[in-house]
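User: Could you go from structure to sequence for me? I need the amino acid at each position, not a summary. Structure tokens:
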């Protein structure tokens, strides 16, 4: 017991020293220019100290344990992995925001994005129509948020409007416990305990209700999110945003791991926000798409909208173009591996946002409802609103 206590004491002291030294890691040059040309380079460089610190703590813990080689190897390895994982998280938080960027996928003009009736009722508006998280490819492929929003300015001729995309990326909060294992942490940074009083392992997080979990942001120290300054046009814009996730080999967390992403689009004193809960998945769980919550809109800087609240588009900004003929399932995409995400009752009024195929009978369309729901249904399930 004395040996184990000494090992834990030494591990904590050494890990603390590594973390203090590591805090000097940087992402920018003194001139303000980026220190690296990519997220991968930034993360690998900052993780160098994590690897040295983790391996060093593991080896020295083995030496302190001494005689029992089996026990020494197991605890020493665990100490190194836990320390490296925690410092790897710090490297991730330092680099992710600096090297993230959104790329436009499609842009529809006002005339293309809105029916004539909506243009006649024109008023300045901003609405995040869709937020979807795509977790595809291999374990080393990062999740990709796809989002679409519709923006109208007071001046119909206005172009090149300055806007902001505010990204908040969160991962379930975890820590290394007294046994040097990764366990869930509560809001105070203490180990979260189960009914028997034992720490809950990180791998159990995916099976727990989201409201029980605590979260930590993937952003630089003292910040909750990171901001992109962009230029947008009027109409409907669609973007992809590549989330920067460390390679699996460099941050071997037990998968799946719960995460959360909140996007806020800001333009002309207006904000529109949505949140999507998702998970980092192993290969067997991919591909998978997660739908975001209904958007929440605010005006004149009333603060970031609360995630998960309900919106209504019955204020004139939503004008239905079609109605649902009969009860129909709403799908996450129009491909052969689509998944039903909701059900629409007969008579539900919708507007068409995008068409996937031009030829019948395989024609699919992406629709929005006045409650903020977005998804794909067969075009044959719709009838035009007169």
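Assistant: Here is the amino acid at each position, in order:
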């Amino acid at each position: 017991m004395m040996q184990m206590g000494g090992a834990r004491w030494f591990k904590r002291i050494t890990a603390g020293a590594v973390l203090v030294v590591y805090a000097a890691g940087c992402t920018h040059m003194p001139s303000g220019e980026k220190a690296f040309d990519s997220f991968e380079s930034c993360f690998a460089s900052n993780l160098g100290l994590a690897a040295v610190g983790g391996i060093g703590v593991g080896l020295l813990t083995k030496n302190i344990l001494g005689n029992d080689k089996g026990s020494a190897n197991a605890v020493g390895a665990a100490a190194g992995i836990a320390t490296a994982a925690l410092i790897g998280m710090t490297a991730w938080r330092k680099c992710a925001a600096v090297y993230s960027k959104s790329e436009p996928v499609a842009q529809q003009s006002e005339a293309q994005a809105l029916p004539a009736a909506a243009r006649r009722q024109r008023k300045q508006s901003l609405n995040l129509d869709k937020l979807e998280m795509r977790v595809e490819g291999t374990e080393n492929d990062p999740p990709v948020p796809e989002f679409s929003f519709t923006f109208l300015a007071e001046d119909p001729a206005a172009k090149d409007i300055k806007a902001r995309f505010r990204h908040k990326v969160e991962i379930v909060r975890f820590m290394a416990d007294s046994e040097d294992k990764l366990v869930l942490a509560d809001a105070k940074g203490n180990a979260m305990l189960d009914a028997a009083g034992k720490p809950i392992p990180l791998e159990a997080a995916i099976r727990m209700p989201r409201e029980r979990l605590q979260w930590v942001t993937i952003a630089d120290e003292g910040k909750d999110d990171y901001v992109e300054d962009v230029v947008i046009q009027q109409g409907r814009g669609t973007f992809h945003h590549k989330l920067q996730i460390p390679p699996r080999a460099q941050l071997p967390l037990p998968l799946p791991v719960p995460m959360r992403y909140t996007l806020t689009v800001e333009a002309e004193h207006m904000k529109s926000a949505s949140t999507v809960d998702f998970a980092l998945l192993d290969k067997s769980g991919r591909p998978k798409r997660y739908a975001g919550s209904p958007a929440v809109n605010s005006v004149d800087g009333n603060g970031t909208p609360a995630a998960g609240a309900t919106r209504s588009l019955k204020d004139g900004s939503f004008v239905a173009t079609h109605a649902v003929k009969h009860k129909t399932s709403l799908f996450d995409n129009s491909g052969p591996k689509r998944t039903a995400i909701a059900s629409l009752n007969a008579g539900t009024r919708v507007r068409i946002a995008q068409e996937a195929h031009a030829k019948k009978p395989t024609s699919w369309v992406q629709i929005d409802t006045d409650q903020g729901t977005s998804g794909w249904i067969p075009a044959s399930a719709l009838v035009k609103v007169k």
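One structural detail worth keeping in mind: The first strand starts at residue 102 and ends at 108.
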